Structures are given as C-alpha cells and as structure tokens.
Amino acid sequence: MAGTAAASRRRPQRVSMQEHMAIDVNPGPIRPIRRISDYFPHFYPFAEPALRAPDPHPAVAPAIGSAPPLQPNPEPEGDSDDSTALGALEFTLLFDADNSALHCTAHRAKGLKPPASGSVDTYVKADLLPGASKASQLRTRTVRGTGGPVWEETLTYHGFTRQDAGRKTLRLCVCEDLRLRRRRRAPPLGELRVPLRKLVPNRARSFNVCLEKRRLTKRPKSLDTSRGMSLYEEAAEAEAAGEERGRILLSLCYSSQRGGLLVGVLRCAHLAPMDTNGYSDPFVRLSLHPNMGKKSKYKTSVWKKTLNPEFNEEFFYEGSREELAQKTLLVSVWDYDLGIADDFIGGVQLSGRASGERQRHWRECLGCSDRRLELWHPLDGAPLQLSD
User: Which of 195, 215, 266, 373 lies at a 20 to 30 A Cα distance from 187?
Assistant: First the structure.
C-alpha cells in the first residue's frame, strides 16, 4: 500500500486540456467591454440614461498594474467634413525652366461627391493666379458617368518664368460639364490651390490632395466696370487682375546674308480680355523708329476668341548693325473689333536705350550674327508713343 502511494507521488498528475485552459488561462468572470461613449456625459430629457459610467472600483483588479483610462481619439480637423467628402485629385507639376513652361498633368480623381443631378460628368479646370479672368484658364476633356474619372491629360502654360514661380499659385477645380446638363452655372465639385514657389525647376512633383469647397466673395466696386469679368470672384484675384496685360515671345536674329534684322512674333500668353465674352481677338503690330516708310510697319494675322494666340510669323527689316543700333522697335498687341477702333492690349519697346531684358535682348541680337535669340517680354498697359 505504501509502495503504491510512493509511485503515485513520483508520476506527474495528468490534467485534461479543458482543465488546463480553465486553470491557467481563464482570469475569472468575463466583464462587459467598455465603450468610448461611457466616458462622455449623456443627457436624456425624457428618460433615465441607460448607460452607467464605469465603476471606479472594479471587483477584479488587473494582474499587472492598472491601465490608463481610455481617451477619445478625435479626427483631425477637416477630415470629417467637406475636405474628404468632396474627394481627392491626383496630378503632377513640372516647371520646364529651359523652355519657360509649366506642365500640369491631371491624372485622376477619387471619391467625388455626385451633384444634385446624380450623374458625374467632370473635367479639370486650371487657373494661374493672380491673373486675368480667362487669360490663364485651361481645361481637360470631359469624362462621363463616373465618380473616379481618369484624364491623364497635360495642360501647359507657356511663358512661365522663375519670377512667376515665386509669386503665383495654381488653382485646380473639378467641375461638372454643364453643357451636358443644359444648365449655365453651377459651383465646382471641389478645388485646391498649390503655391508654385516650392517647385524645383526641371523636376516633376506628384500630388494627391483633398478637394475643398470654393469660397466666393463679391468683387470691389472699383472693378465692376471691367469688361469680360465675372461679378463674383476671389477678392485677391480681382485686385490683381489688372496688374498684368499679358506677355509676348519674340525672336530676334541679325542675318548677315540678307543684311538686316529678322523679327519673329511667336506667341502671346495670358492676354487681358477685352471683349464682353471674356476673350480677345488679338493681333500684333510692329514698327521701327525713326520711321523708314511703309517697310517699317507690319501686322500679323488676327486670332479669334483667344487669350493665348500662337502666330509664328517672321518679318524683315533691312539695315546695317550700326543703323539698327540707333533705332527702336515697337511691338504692340491689339484686339480686333469690326467697324470700330481696335482696343489696345499692351506693348513692349526694344532698343539700346531700353532697360533690363529689353535692352539685353536688343544688344545681344545685334552683337552676334545669324543667331536666333528668343525671350518673353511682359506687356506694358500704356500705349507706346515715339516721335520720328
């Protein structure tokens, strides 16, 4: 009998798996999981609160210290309202400093909020601010019937310089195509703004930004008389709309074979709107002073209803370098009007007595032969007047 008792003490006691789990794992009676709402006060005007605050002295204390009370995790500002509800836009920006151009590639949008019509037919509209109302507006094609449109389309701003990158902002709006809905006006589905001063020249940068609501304010009364401008627009944009008349890309080359100056009028960008439809019908006039007769005056063709015409026309002025160095080239941009006087948009004066880039462009052209020099020039708002 004693031997049997000693043998039983030497052998380990067998415990079933159910008993093992009940002994080693089960901490005790299961208590309800607390909810975050239990930590906030409740007010029920017609009934007693059904949820009680958690017991400050629980019957069973945790084995390793007391855990800190749960704290609510509030959402970041803007994530729970329109900034996420309106969707997001993916796009890429590239500042091509060598060619003075800004490329904006609209890739896709995600999670767009459908308008009241229920169908989403959208496009992306780009504005370069500050600037004239329609002078810097570009848009993509329309993608129909989806809340996640894919455009993969590049919009290009010509004449974009390093000075523009330091002070301008690009506004992108996702808009509903109203022509398909037979309506005239509707607010954009969402917009965003990107300051361009942080762009690195010749290096593409991708963005994925949430859209926001557009906030409109009434323009100052002093600008209500401007033609081709909307009555309601951003206050900062309206004040800056009259600062620029546009810019022109000119090429100069002194040809040793022909014995004269070749002047190329390549294109204009961001011209001021002069017509009631928000556009202009631009053309360019050239004149060389002192007056050399009819051969000193030229005029380009007229481009209809545009603020970014591309002329690509060339004109020739005969004369030696010494003669041309004493002369002044006047370049002016006009809005063509049928039956009435043409409207002056802006002009630029190139000569050896000019200042800044205008003087440098003129002198470098006459200083070397058979070399074409292209340069963008901002337009002055005052008409150019020189006496012969």
Answer: 195
